Amino acid sequence: MVYFKNDRFAQNEWFIKAAIYVRKHIKKTETFTLKLGQVNVADSIISTYNPDYFYSHSSKQNYVELEYWLQYNDVDNIMYPLTGRTFSFKLKKTGLQFSGGINEFSIKPNFNQYYSLSNKWYLSMRLGGEIKLPFDQPYYHQKALGYKEDYLRGYQYYVIDGPAYVYSKFDLKKKLLFFTAPTFLKSKAYQRIPFTIYAKAFADFGYAYHQSATKLNNRFLYSGGIGFDVVMVHDFHLSIEFTLNQLGQKGLFLHP
């Protein structure tokens, strides 16, 4: 359960959820989730700034959400994979109604493939997307590219809303260096920390559909760049990326 309360927030949300995890195979996990929540926004949002925020005159929305999430992982390292593949498939129904009110049914697949090439070269391909039905969703349910892990590198400063989107990410990387650094700790298990550095080039592509076209909706998006990945003890890595998008905007970004 998560709850934040502050009179200065334009939006307050709370939810409570219960989940059942089923893992009959070491590489496959199924999750069944029931979620009860409430979203409350400032009255001015509904009355003045965005009447379509909820498709309702009320500034408060209660909802029930059912979700099924299938995950399959067959990679050498789940935190920083270099070989193998992962797949996930998520079905979600928000709201018990099938017309009007809160009514969203979403399908969200994701597929990642990782290849080990010769001479310490590696290639990865990531594909993802989501579709929400019906397409005519209120603003609150139109999150697409730019949220959580679903973003294009080079567009980190943008959110691109819509009921449907797809994206792909391609990375070509080369292992440059491996070394260990002392920790000066007395523990024998943690006397030295391993570091691995990869150089990479990447390209991202995406498309977000919206009934009303905006600057970045309903158009083919692309970006690219170069960077470095620094991997430590297999469960932490830092990406340093220089990007260029189709708008001609350049940026330097750090990602954990």
Major sheet: size, sense and barrel closure?
12 strands, antiparallel
* Rg, alpha carbons: 21 Å
What oligomeric state is this?
single chain
Instruction: Compute the number of strand runs.
Output: 12
What is the beta-strand fraction?
over 45%
Q: List unreliable stretches of 5+ residues.
A: none
- Strands in their spatial order, largest beta sheet: 1-2-3-4-5-6-7-8-9-10-11-12
- SSE ordering: EEEHEEEEEEEEE
- Proportion of helical residues: under 10%
Shape: globular
Rounded to the nearest angstrom, the distance between the terminal CA atoms is 26 Å
Helix vs. strand class: mainly beta
Number of DSSP helical runs: 1
Task: Draw up the topology in text.
Blueprint: E1 2-3, E2 11-25, E3 28-41, H1 43-49, E4 60-75, E5 84-94, E6 104-116, E7 121-133, E8 164-182, E9 192-209, E10 221-232, E11 236-245, E12 250-255
Antiparallel strand pairs: 1-2, 2-3, 3-4, 4-5, 5-6, 6-7, 7-8, 8-9, 9-10, 10-11, 11-12
